[in-house]
Design goal:
3 helices; 4 strands
């Protein structure tokens, strides 16, 4: 499995509304072909900083599939207005699984 890790920065004053918008987007990820998991992590050290972590079968499932879908358009409509800068996205895979 490949994980998409998106670093997101928003205005900390909007945190509650942003998190609610991400929760509303969950069904769009659940319905996406090749999507296996979806979570949003909040930084405890830097208010307004988040990591979106999405599990995909392949990079193509994310880039070619989801990003070209109505679900992606709905996701961006829900959360895009909160972004201070565009999210910084990497696709990662486990190199060492310690325990």
């Amino acid at each position: 499995m490949i994980r998409e890790v998106a670093r997101i920065e928003i205005d900390p004053a909007d945190a509650e509304r942003f998190e609610a918008a991400v929760a509303l987007a969950t069904p769009h990820f659940r319905a996406a072909d090749g999507c296996r998991s979806f979570r949003l992590d909040r930084s405890v050290d830097r208010p307004g900083h988040y990591r979106l972590v999405v599990g995909w079968d392949t990079v193509a499932a994310h880039v070619d599939g989801f990003r070209n879908s109505p679900g992606y358009q709905a996701w961006r409509a829900l959360v895009g207005p909160f972004f201070i800068t565009p999210p910084d996205v990497d696709h990662v895979e486990t190199a060492v699984n310690g325990f």
